[in-house]
Amino acid sequence: MTEWDVKKLRILRTLRDRGTVTATAEALLMTPSAVSQQLTNLARQLGVELLEAQGRRVRLTDAAHLVLRHAEAVFAQLERADAELTGYLRGEAGEVRVGAFSTAVPALVVPAVTLLRAADRPGPEVRVREAEAAEAYDLLTAGEVDLALSLAAHAPTARDPRFTLFPLLADPLDVALPAAHPLAGAPALRLADLAADRWIFGGSGPWSEITTAACEAAGFVPEQAHSAAGWTAILALVEAGMGIALVPRMASREQRRAGVVMRVLDADQPRRHVVAAVRHGAESGPAVARVLAALTETARTFS
To answer: Is the Cβ–Cβ distance between 295 and 108 less than 8 Å?
Structure first.
């Protein structure tokens, strides 16, 4: 029977995800030579070539991809076994490490923890790690968090065997206008009405894409006046009359300024979709399941 070494299979999977031996070594806190040696040993154990040279780099062979397709089922089963064992040893009061992007922490994570604390039985200990939405899947893969909140725009395909995704909510995007803006008090407002305005959004990344996609769907390309990523900076620029911005409602609830008017875009209804993700199989653990249930309940009542 072929010998399957789970540790070496994880190294192979990390190489597939990271792309280079050096990046794999950094992610796993190993040396590049140790990564290469482990993969050479795995290839010998399995009796197939796993890597082939591609210039100065290596690429996975078809046999390596076949091995990983089967290995993903093993990883998921191990996650389920670990979750059940943790539940057996700790009951529902285990520890769950949650990675969440900045606006999700006060809007979703904190209310969910409050909900768990109000329950009539002990809940899991939740440890929060603030992280960019784009980091979620790297943190899950590396085992640094047990559950991550991200945006659907960053999510892998539903067929990715490493993760299980749970849609939480569609977060409306409102437009932030200076109080003196001529349309601040208009009875109804569409994005197209703001086509000639100067806009504030990040120079690259998800929020740039979300803003430009929403404006393009309304029939125009937004003129970027300023580049900013943090909501405090963006709303300060809006308040100073230096431009306008799309702001997710989750963020605007926590960031209020007297000189900024938030307007709902009923006709356009742009949204960003928030999802929770766990490693495939981990959702069966009692502690993770309770945190997921609390997040789902919090998202259901969010408005």
So the answer is: yes
pTM for this predicted structure: 0.69
pLDDT tens string 71-105:
888 888 888 777 767 765 665 667 899 999 988 99
Residue from 55, 51, 45 nearest 6 by CA: 45
pLDDT higher than threshold 60 for residue 1: no
User: Would the CA dihedral through 231, 292, 139, 97 be positive or negative?
Assistant: positive
Tallying the residues shown for the chain, one arrives at 303
Range 178-187 contact pairs with CB under 8 angstroms and sequence separation of 24 or more = 178/238, 178/239, 178/240, 178/241, 178/244, 178/259, 178/260, 178/261, 179/239, 179/258, 179/259, 179/260, 179/261, 180/241, 181/241, 181/244, 181/261, 183/263, 184/261, 184/263, 185/261, 186/263
- Greatest Cα pair distance, the chain, in angstroms, is 75
Locate 160 and state its tokens: 């990715």
Pairing of strands 245-248, 163-178: antiparallel
Digit-coded pLDDT (tens) for 250-273: 888 777 788 999 999 988 889 989
What is d(CA 290, CA 122) in angstroms, rounded to the nearest whole number? 11
Sign of CA dihedral 99, 273, 188, 197: positive
Bigger pLDDT: 123 vs 197: 197
Mean of pLDDT over the chain:
88
In angstroms, the CA 59 to CA 1 distance is 27
| Beta-bridge partner residues of 148 | 99, 277
Element (H, E) at 87: helix 62-90
Yes or no: say if 177 and 184 are a contact pair by the CB < 8 Å rule: yes
Phi, psi of 245 (to 5 degrees): -155, 150
Question: Phi-psi bin for 47: left (phi > 0), alpha (psi -120 to 50), beta?
Answer: left
